[in-house]
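Anyone opening a protein record will find just a pair of labelled lines. A complete record is shown below as an example.
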Amino acid sequence: MKILVTGSDGQLGRSIQQRISLYPDFSFDFTDIDQLDITDYAAIKSHIENTKPDVIVHCAAYTAVDKAEEEKERAHLINATAVGYLAQLALEYKILLIHISTDFVFDGFSNKAYIEEDSAQPISIYGKSKLAGEEAIIKNGPNAIIIRTSWLYSEYGHNFAKTILRLAAERPELKIVSDQIGTPTYAGDLADAILKILNLNYRPNGVQIFHYSNEGMASWYDFAKEIVEIKKLACIVHPIKTEEYPLPASRPAYSVMNKEKFKRYFFSEIPEWKKSLKICLENLS
């Protein structure tokens, strides 16, 4: 099986690269912006014709949530228009497309975990651009798996966990938002899940949406506090309200996702977020 991975320098792309030795029968083509510009339709088409992948795992995305409020066109170009190009070509060349989306497609007004069929009502430019990407896949209609995930962190790049580690080592106290609830997700676990799906050789008929995050739920305050406790740092973490830490982009107050469909289709064991966080932090030691 030949697998084209976009966004290979990002958290998920690098996490997949760390695991490829476990799948010797797979042939990977890891690309980032220097190897493949996903906003250039002709470049993608040429790359696909030359390399003939069986699967595209699309990890590349515009993920600067607050900056997207200013860069609406760029966010839409990368998260929606480019996804449409991949979907068109996946259909034309009969390639399975695995696309990574986000919990930010929801408005956060629910009081129960979101299922895949719940209405997507994003409240930020980033969320709207990611939903537009999902819609572009559905409109073009290739065989595709859309995986919505949440609060991704890893040993790589810039993310909340690494930021808290740095700040907690520098400061005696931190103030972290406690009224936004979701689920921290270790990119290593998501990478494992994607590779296992590929190993199962699952092929949807049309487009299937799945939710995948680690088990459990937390606020950003809970997430930060757990990091400090695991690493035994002296920093004191204080809870604050969203209104006390205003940001350009609105965040969903509640974006926990129901994973029952994912577990029913693939495998029932999904790691709990605190256990995975400990593994990640140990790797960073």
In short: The chain has a mean pLDDT of 97. The domain at 2-159+184-214+256-271 is CATH 3.40.50.720 (Rossmann fold). Residues 128 and 247 are 17 Å apart (CA to CA). The longest strand covers residues 96-102.
